[in-house]
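To whoever is on call:

I kicked off a structure prediction for a single chain this morning and the downstream step that reads the tokens threw a length-mismatch warning. I double-checked the sequence; it's 169 residues and nothing unusual in it as far as I can see. Pasting both halves so you can look.
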Amino acid sequence: MESRTSVPAAVRPLPYEGVWRFTAPAVDVSVPRARHTVRDLLRRRRVPVRDGVVRSVLLIVSELVTNAVRHAAVLSPEFAVEIAVGAEWIRVSVEDGHPYRPTALETDHARTGGRGLLLVRELTREAGGGCGVEHTAGGGKIVWAVLPLMCPVAVEPPGGSVTSPRPVR
């Protein structure tokens, strides 16, 4: 007789939890494609995430992929995007094979670019998340950002009044 061990309901992942990864060539057209792929994934998986968090995640994807295309393509003709969704958070990471470890640049109002990581850092901080850079075993890097599915601060809708966030479950 076989014994079947069932996993307690509290341990089972929620239907939207998981990790998804895709690769793309380090070319300009990959930026909107990566953003659309992530947006479609969140919709298909029915991740219970506020619109403001989705906008932040998509902006972060755009910034991180743009950095991989602009700054890493010489040594890394392909990059990987990974989306990990937990019960209460979402993690976006972009991995490339270039060893240069970027830092969030200080604001320079005379420059038209170079503020992507600064923007990512501020978006994640304001939402109660975090971001960072890690080296890979192969000599490249992973730039990542984590955001809570629920924004911990008050949300101001287009109408102008401030409301407290409510659980989305």
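Update from on-call: the warning came from a stale cache, not from the record. Cleared it. Sanity check on the structure: The longest strand covers residues 18-25.
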